[in-house]
What we know:
The protein is of the alpha/beta class.
Amino acid sequence: MTVSFHKFGDYFPGTGDVRDVGFGKGKYYSLNVPLDDGVDDESYHSLFKPIMGKVMEVFRPGAVVLQCGADSLSGDRLGCFNLSIKGHAECVRYMRSFNVPLLLLGGGGYTIRNVARCWCYETGVALGVEVDDKMPQNEYYEYFGPDYTLHVAPSNMENKNSRQILDEMRTKLLDNLSKLRHAPSVQFQERPPDTEFVEPDEDLEDADERHDPNSDVEMDIQKLPDETSRKPTSNSTQNIRIKRENVEKELKDQVKYLFYQWIFYN
């Protein structure tokens, strides 16, 4: 499942509308949350938390990949949202609260010093560490003037996302999620103990066979034990033998080919 919170407009390839929900077997596994200029922390969270909470409840993912694009921060050169760094990081904190494996990625962001601020703070959130707002002395200290602090306050830009539009969008998306009654769930499983698998006993192998340069190359493929009995069967090991002479011939042919290629190009 993919969920996208983004600025929607007349951009290529023309997707990203709230009505774009996927098709066929993938219908309703794509959620788009298009937002207008000036969205602030409160407005953003009023959509992000209920929608992502429902996703975690219905879809029950085994892992989450969260892209933390910083162009939604206030004051970004290209972005047009009005999020504070703390508001942006609250989304990371919220997803972390589900205790599901979480992979954080970067993304957009075109006011570089604010991108650095944001990802520094969110790294702290991911680790459960509160980062001091006062900027420490370092070789890049002057880039963060004139206040030399970690956080950036939102501006007074107009929020064009009305309460009515946000409520209607949230209702529509939650309704789409309610249609995923039989969502797949790929949960992480603990690795079974090694004692449940049958490993070949090297001591039982023929020593002469192991060291004979003219012998076949042998590879053992170990099958998983029968789910009903959890005991190895007589056919639990398949032996694939590859004739050594065939392997050597193929290697020689490859060496010849590379040699002729080298002569041709030199």
